[in-house]
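Model it.
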Amino acid sequence: MPLSVKHLLGINELTVEDIEQIFKTADNFKLVLNRPIKKVPTLRDTAIANIFFENSTRTRISFELAEKRLGAETISFSASGSSVSKGETLIDTVNNILAMKVDMVVMRHSASGAPWFLSQHIDAGIINAGDGINQHPTQALLDAFSIREKLGSVKGKRVAIIGDIMHSRVALSNIYCLLKLGADVMVAGPPTLIPKHIASLGVLVEYNIKKALEWCDVANILRIQLERMQKPLFSTLREYSLYYGISKDLLDSLSKKIIIMHPGPINRGVELFSDVADSKQSIILNQVENGVAIRMAVIYLLSGKRELNEQM
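Modeled.
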């Protein structure tokens, strides 16, 4: 079944049925990724432009690999060293790329709402790979998919999102996605890094890290985004690590075992210590693996192709 949307701009625009369809398709693609030949050339006649106006490593590589696994032609563009640095507008940049007959655009931009703005002006399908502090929908999908894979279901699970909630597009997309799928969600961190009215979204708020960890089944740890802060919101990284860093000793002091997640990049020794990131409770590398399958599923479903069963 096709998705109910033409673009993937934000999780809030997807229905529960859309999300379940993405997950089922990703299940199939995970089987493909574990075969000796890891390709399904269903998009061999499709051209996709990866347009990144912000630096990225994991997300960009994940999208490029997903596209190549589907057999698509890819064009990669970064703002540094391009005509954007000479004053070219976003629409002109994208229209020039579309003039090369591109069918789909994967875009990351520092301005919140940039993918939505672009969707009003061009006909190609758009996938939001992160816009400002707004949303990062494919990250939320792969996070929820990873929870489903590990625990069997997202519904009824308690998920704590811990860290820099205020500046995180991952946090907002995760909140929307997890609530749609029936999870209970808590945000935790220093008061200065949690938006004042976030409880209105239907989440719990906790400032004590141990209480948050005792409450949850899954802890999704976010990094401190110093590059987005206009002014200091806590004393030092050492102080943050002391009060909010997740160590093995802290996990061992809990009354139960919980799952640890992180969207990356990890600031080891700040929000997460190595003995936790590399522990058996961590599913961080599973998230990375699932990111390719989820992005393959999103690209395939938005492309409108219907050849998957025959090619698998």
